[in-house]
Structure formats: structure tokens, C-alpha cells
């Protein structure tokens, strides 16, 4: 039987230092050059903004947007979508109890999860800061009505991504294929189901039911309410994604604890 080392006996500062170094490793894991990896992430986000801007213009959907800065409306959806999905992918791909890294004290799966999530958050916050500042300085000044609460919705999108990623991570030691396919399907579905292309207040009730199951739909809609002075969300809430986050996090933690008790390095030997 494989048993991970318990980091709970170590000092909090030592654990935080370990999480920091693991987060740096998680960020650099995607690319050897940290600056180049950040640039790639910025280009991916910028490309998605350009694609939706072009699609809205071609399909004549610009009139359905919120009154205010049109590009900021698009970016508000894309930023939260990217933060959520990148966090799900990072946490789902984190090293679990059967990883060789767990043999090195005091590493454990919880530190691995925290490092993957914080690495994703760092990359996304830095990317959106660069893009927002560049747009504000080069194109035109932008104004956010309630920036602190808007940032809170970004963090809530990240938190729900962390919790949902933990569920996929807990499944991975038992069935890697199911976990990988499930995470990929969830992220592809969110391309549409996140509601970043729509305004919830303008959606018919029949169409609204197809989206309101998704916590990301609620955080994006609520975030736009805090970004734009003239938009007040009526069909989304902050409480729903919080409940989903807590439920998925409890499921993920319980499943991870059970897996850690029963995990064996021989599981991964043939994979």
C-alpha cells in the first residue's frame, strides 16, 4: 500500500513555502521559459477575444450586448471563462497519490492541488492585467463600476474551477480515461454553456434553463453586473456557484482521502 507523507506536522510557513515552490514548478511546467509561457497564454486569450468580436460583428449580435464598452463586454466573459477552464484543466492534471512526486517528503496531493490552482490563477490574472492595461493605455480608457466585486467574481470562477477539477482528479487514479474525457467534455461544453456570448436578462426562459445549471454562467453574469453601471442581473446569483463550489470541494476531498488510503503505485505501472 502507498501512503503519502503527512504535511500537517510541519510548520505552516514550511507548507506555504512548499506550495510556493510547487506553484512555480506548475507554472514553468507548461513551458521552459516562464515569460514565453505567459506570452502564449496572453495570445490565446487575445485570440479568443478577437474570434468572439468578429463573430458578434458578422452575426449582427452587437445589439444584444450590454450598453457600455463593447470589447470590455466580450473580455468580461472570456477572462472568467479562461480562468475557470484553465483551473479545471490544471487541477485535473495535478499529481495524485500514485505520482512519483508523492514519494518525496513532505509532498502530498493537497499541496499538488493547491500549487496547480495557484499557478493557473497567477497566469490568468497576469494575462488579463496585461490585456486590460494595454487596451486602456493604447485603444481607449475603460471604467469598471465595482472593480473589487468584479475581481471577486473572477476568484469565484477560479474557486469553482478548482472544486470541479478536484472531482476529476479524484476519479483519475480509478479510471484515467473517464477523468480525461470528462474534463475535456466539460471544458468544450463550457464554450457555449458558460453564457459568455449572451446576456442573461435578454434570454428567453426556455433558453435560460439550458444555462443556469452552470456555475460559470452565474459568475459571468454577476461579474458583468459589477463591471457595467447599467446592467443589473435578474436571472443569476452568487449563492449558486458558492454552493456548487462547496459541494464539489467536499466530494473531491472525500474522494481524494479515500483514494489516498487505498492507492497503490502498481495502479500506474501498466499505464
UniProtKB/TrEMBL annotation:
Gene Ontology MF term list: ABC-type transporter activity
InterPro entries reported for this sequence: ABC2_TM
Keywords of the record: Membrane, Transmembrane, Transmembrane helix
Pfam families, per database record: ABC2_membrane
UniProt entry tagged with the keyword Signal: no
Main location: membrane
Residue span(s) of domain ABC-2 type transporter transmembrane: 23-225
Cellular component terms per the entry's GO annotation: membrane
Protein name: ABC transporter permease
Amino acid at each position: 500500500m502507498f501512503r503519502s507523507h503527512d504535511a500537517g506536522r510541519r510548520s505552516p510557513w514550511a507548507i506555504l513555502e512548499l506550495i510556493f515552490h510547487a506553484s512555480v514548478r506548475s507554472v514553468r511546467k507548461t513551458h521552459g521559459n516562464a515569460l514565453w509561457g505567459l506570452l502564449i497564454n496572453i495570445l490565446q486569450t487575445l485570440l479568443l477575444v478577437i474570434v468572439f468580436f468578429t463573430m458578434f460583428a458578422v452575426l449582427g449580435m452587437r445589439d444584444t450586448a450590454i450598453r457600455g464598452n463593447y470589447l470590455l463586454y466580450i473580455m468580461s466573459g472570456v477572462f472568467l471563462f479562461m480562468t475557470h477552464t484553465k483551473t479545471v484543466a490544471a487541477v485535473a492534471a495535478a499529481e495524485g497519490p500514485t505520482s512519483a512526486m508523492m514519494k518525496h517528503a513532505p509532498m502530498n496531493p493537497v499541496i499538488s492541488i493547491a500549487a496547480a490552482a495557484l499557478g493557473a490563477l497567477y497566469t490568468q490574472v497576469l494575462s488579463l492585467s496585461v490585456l486590460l492595461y494595454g487596451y486602456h493605455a493604447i485603444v481607449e480608457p475603460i471604467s469598471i463600476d465595482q472593480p473589487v466585486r468584479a475581481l471577486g467574481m473572477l476568484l469565484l470562477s477560479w474557486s469553482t474551477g478548482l472544486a470541479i477539477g478536484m472531482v476529476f482528479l479524484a476519479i483519475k487514479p480509478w479510471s484515467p480515461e473517464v477523468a480525461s474525457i470528462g474534463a475535456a467534455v466539460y471544458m468544450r461544453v463550457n464554450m457555449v454553456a458558460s453564457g459568455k456570448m449572451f446576456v442573461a436578462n435578454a434570454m428567453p426562459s426556455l433558453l435560460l434553463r439550458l444555462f443556469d445549471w452552470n456555475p460559470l454562467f452565474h459568475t459571468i453574469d454577476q461579474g458583468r453586473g459589477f463591471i457595467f453601471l447599467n446592467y443589473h442581473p435578474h436571472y443569476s446569483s452568487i449563492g449558486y456557484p458558492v454552493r456548487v463550489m462547496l459541494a464539489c470541494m467536499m466530494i473531491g476531498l472525500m474522494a481524494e482521502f479515500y483514494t489516498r488510503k487505498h492507492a497503490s503505485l502498481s495502479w500506474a505501472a501498466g499505464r
